[in-house]
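Dear colleagues,

For the upcoming journal club I promised to circulate an example of a predicted protein-ligand complex. I picked one with pyridoxal-5'-phosphate because it came up in last month's discussion. The inputs are reproduced below in full, followed by the predicted structure.
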Amino acid sequence: MSSNTPTLSPILLMARHAAALRAEGHDVVDLTLGEPDFSPPAHVLAATQSGLGQKLGYSPSNGIPELRRAIQTNLLTKHHLSYDDDQIAVGCGAKQVIFNAFSASLRPGDEVIIPAPYWASYPDMVKMNGGTPVIVPTALSNGFRLTPEMLLGALNERTRWVVLNAPGNPSGTLYSEDELRGLAEVLEGFPQTFVLSDDIYSHIRYTPEAYATLAAAPKLFERTLLIDGVSKAYAMTGWRVGWGCGPANLISAITSVQSQNCTQTSTLSQLAAIAALSGPQEFLEERAAIYRQRRDAALEVLRGSQALEVVEPEGAFYLFPKVSGVINDAKLALLLLEAGVATVPGSAFGMPGYLRLSFATDEALLVEGCRRLVASLEGAA
Ligand code: PLP
């Protein structure tokens, strides 16, 4: 095993602990997983069923043409962004496309800027592909935003990628067009740097403004990889379909990596993803409204505690409160587990002293989990 061998995700570890306790009969509210608790829409399930009647052979490594066309239409409608057929790569979830992108582009010594708090997989993926993660901590006081100054301070001639994930996991942070313009202006000075705009939560937002993506910055379009997929918006985590859209030469390299690992993601899942993108979309807003209601209910409980400081997330389905005076957030998460609520320690996201709570769970359970959290922190005070 090399020093770059990743450890098991702390999120999965906590989820396993919670599942083991529940199997023993303990009453544990599990707020660990970032997995929608909804089902995929009925037309997706119907497409999956009818796909079984087709010949499901190998299909192109960059995705079946009909799916790439559906992605083109989706991005044109969503962001007014136009991608050619050879600018789209489909993989086994957004996760694999990001991994393939690093694998296709990183050379030893290359740096990847990752603002913290971050999705726990980015640094491991960078290290597994020979790169060096450069973590840039952001602050709760400005809503966990990466500022142009922070970005400029971290960029240099070795920077191969900058990762921006909005709405963020675990922060819930969104960027306005103006804020993105400020970041884009800094990036214009570093033409060797790719931008990874991870937009996987772009349909789950709680602000009225239209969604802004760094991929739409005119001078960055040629070197930005926009990431999206069906896992979060369409509740299709297990289908494993995600995509990256960007410069044709990068997409071609990503496709070569894909062709040498798992060839393609499941042809059946791709048929279902076409149905997801081409079918009715109204339910996306309905679900976002439900998440929002849960967010507000949870916030009300958490804000009752002196021990917690919490920013209202603008998107995604996580709360990321800071726990005052906590020295070891991993230990705290284990203590909370004993008190009947499973959370993920902030150190898993590069921010010790915080906890992540997923509100992709039933509202009554969520509120009960937050009450248990607050009661144990108050008890410990
Ligand atoms: N990007 C972020 C920020 C995520 O939180 C996740 C999943 O949790 C992914 C990418 C991966 O999504 P997928 O299920 O499409 O691989």
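Two points we might discuss: The chain has a mean pLDDT of 95. Residues 34, 93-95, 119, 165, 169, 198, 200, 229, 231, 237, 242 surround pyridoxal-5'-phosphate (CB under 6 Å).

See you all on Thursday,
B. R.
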